Amino acid sequence: VLLEAAMLQPLPTEQLFSAPAAQYLLPTLGETPSGEHPHPKKCSPREYLEFYIFPVVLPGLAALLHEAEKEKCFEGKRTKFIPSDFLTEWLYNNNPKRKDESFTELFSIPFVKDWLKDHPRPPIPLSLVLSEEEASILIQSFWRGYRVRCDSEIQELRQWQKKLREERHITEVVKKFWTKQEAK
């Protein structure tokens, strides 16, 4: 009952946001705060974020947003773009320790290879991989094939082939052929 009563009370927003707004500002992209870098193991969580995390991650997030816009992620519900993959690849390739090394694709990154060995991904659905034009060509070709197979002459030809396969025991002949080939 006390919890319900507390939930129905309005929130005192002046207490929640009493700190000056400047306190919540994040550093500019790619820029570390001025001053001496604190020791990473002895500094506060806020200092660690400001000096070690934000200068690295924020430019990656900006690049991620630009790439998502290029991939038209904001226009539809589904997309083939996987943000975590992009960010992983971007962070790996923009690591200062790899400054002189060439660009490495996501699936060539060593720790990604190791992870995918134990955790294989399901394939991306064709609806996300194909363009509208490619999808329409596939649908049209399937429909033309269906219409051709419905033709009475084609039906007759298919029946004749089926009968021929059964009379000559084609499946057994093929099996024998492959056992001979494998024995060689």
Automatic annotation (TrEMBL):
Q: Which organism is it from?
A: Phainopepla nitens
The name under which this protein is listed is IQCK protein
What InterPro entries is this protein classified in? IQ_motif_EF-hand-BS, IQCK
Q: Which PROSITE patterns match?
A: IQ (PS50096)
